[in-house]
TrEMBL record:
Function in brief: DNA-dependent ATPase involved in processing of recombination intermediates, plays a role in repairing DNA breaks. Stimulates the branch migration of RecA-mediated strand transfer reactions, allowing the 3' invading strand to extend heteroduplex DNA faster. Binds ssDNA in the presence of ADP but not other nucleotides, has ATPase activity that is stimulated by ssDNA and various branched DNA structures, but inhibited by SSB. Does not have RecA's homology-searching function. Plays a role in repairing double-strand DNA breaks, probably involving stabilizing or processing branched DNA or blocked replication forks.
HAMAP family: RadA_bact
Species the sequence originates in: Boudabousia liubingyangii
Name this protein carries in UniProt: DNA repair protein RadA
Single annotated GO MF: hydrolase activity
UniProt: ATP binding residues: G95, E96, P97, G98, V99, G100, K101, S102
Length: 463
């Protein structure tokens, strides 16, 4: 018999090589290659045609009532999924450790169990592989997620999990997490490429055959990518990413892939000691209530997917001591701050070279889109000149290197959100602006350059 040839396989992307190397040539990850001995493959001949299990039908004659969406009980999760969970769908939820993935799915499981009992359907099955059943019970008590129709089991072997599914015929299955599960028929440790692929394929097959939705928790690498083989993303129907800073209350849920809906919706959640709750109106987290206008503050409206969020930027300018002046940012792209400082100096003659600059958002918000340029520039100039912007003013627009303002997408949605929050005035780029974009009761002032915007927002004599 021919001797099996040993190769090395990347645990991140599945790339193979005959010799061990320190860095994967495909995904550029370091120290991820493990020794892999392929199993013997039998030669196959021509494939014989078989009788189909079901006859092909015209697409308009196929009933869709079995795929009607079912609400999860969490409105923000339903928003991201496109209205609810589709029966038979396999959803992968990823995120950094401690962000709240297990807490969110435990709350979803409890609400789905209560809904199943009301609809006289089968219970919900929650499989935990990272914690004991008693530990999950403690968390459920803390977040008030106890329900008699929520079945809990601590298992890591695929055969036992399939046995639970066959015995209880659940209406929803939650697996926490896919990297801790293993199959006794597959070589390798739990979390490896072969194990993750085998476990995921078996669970997907059960989901499609029994028309039961499955929620999978997935780990991420230190770079924020989904751990395990990349094929896992292609096997599942929906991939959602749960993100947020540990020191902040806000959590954002984004759909990276969605076969049954759009991927431009964002769900907002608030993390507290009592668990995670959805935020239908998260703009209040990003606005600082002050009695009077303060120099160095300005409000803009960003877009997270299709969702407008009002965000307040705060800037502080101080005389530098010995050495180079500091440029410190929090929640704002450092390169955009540097660019706005250069534009203000070149086009308006404001010298920041000897000043320390600090820029931050309120509530832990993150702003990366160009639409925050105008608000950022006004906050910096307001702090440097010690002049407060006009009251109830929002500034939206991209600032070019020439000092001209450029239009941004979703202007009508941004202005409508600002008007709903009580803002009475708005500064927007004149390029691409149409009068019908202005909401009722709001004065919208189109400007073509940063110089015009500064003259309107700060005036000449406001202190």
């Amino acid at each position: 018999m021919a001797k099996s040839k040993t190769s090395y396989q990347c645990t991140e992307c599945g790339w193979q090589t005959t010799k061990w190397v320190g860095q994967c040539r495909e995904c550029q990850a370091w120290s991820t290659l493990e020794e892999h001995t392929p199993t013997a493959q039998t030669a196959t001949g021509p494939v014989t045609a078989l009788a189909p299990k079901s006859a092909a039908k015209p697409i308009n004659e196929i009933s869709a009532h079995l795929t009607a969406r079912r609400s999860t009980g969490v409105s923000e999760l339903d928003r991201v999924l496109g209205g609810g969970i589709v029966p038979g769908a396999v959803i992968l939820l990823t995120g950094e450790p401690g962000v709240g993935k297990s807490t969110l799915l435990l709350e979803v499981s409890a609400k789905a169990a209560a809904q199943s009992r009301a609809d006289q359907k089968n219970p919900v099955l929650y499989i935990t592989g990272e914690e004991s059943a008693a530990q999950v019970r403690l968390r459920a008590e803390r977040i008030e997620a106890l329900d008699e129709d929520l079945l809990l089991a601590s298992e890591t072997e695929l055969g036992a999990i399939l046995g639970h599914i066959e015995a209880h015929q659940p209406s929803l299955v939650v697996i926490d997490s896919i990297q801790t599960m293993f199959s006794a028929n597959v070589e390798g440790s739990a979390g490896g490429i072969a194990q993750v692929r085998a476990v995921a394929s078996a669970l997907i097959a059960v989901a499609k055959q029994q028309n039961v939705p499955v929620l999978l928790v997935g780990h991420v690498t230190k770079d924020g990518n989904i751990a395990g083989p990349r094929v896992l993303e292609h096997l599942v129907d929906v991939v959602c990413h749960f993100e947020g800073e540990r020191h902040a209350q806000l959590r954002l849920l984004r759909a990276i892939k969605n076969r049954y809906g759009a991927t431009d919706e964002v769900g907002c959640f608030e993390m507290s000691d009592a668990g995670i709750k959805g935020l239908a109106d998260p703009s209040g987290l990003f606005l600082d209530e002050v009695a009077a206008q303060v120099p160095g503050t300005c409000v803009t409206v960003t877009l997270e997917g299709r969702r407008p969020l009002a965000t307040q930027l705060q800037a502080l300018v101080a005389r530098a001591g010995a050495g180079s002046p500091r440029r410190t940012t929090s929640g704002v792209d450092n390169s955009r701050v540097a660019m706005m400082l250069a534009v203000c100096q070149a086009r308006l003659g404001i010298d920041f070279s000897s000043l320390e600059v600090y820029v931050s958002t309120v509530g832990g918000a993150k702003t990366t889109e160009p639409a925050v340029d105008l608000c950022l520039a006004l906050a910096l100039i307001s702090a440097a000149s010690d002049r407060s912007p006009k009251a109830d003013l929002v500034a939206i627009g991209e600032v070019g290197l020439t000092g001209q303002l450029r239009s941004v997408s979703g202007m009508q949605r941004r202005l409508s959100e600002a008007a709903r929050l009580g803002f009475k005035q708005a500064l927007v780029p004149s390029q691409g602006f149409q009068p019908q974009f202005a909401p009722k009761g709001m004065k919208v002032t189109p400007v073509s350059s940063l110089k015009e915007a500064v003259a309107f927002a700060l005036g000449q004599g406001q202190k």
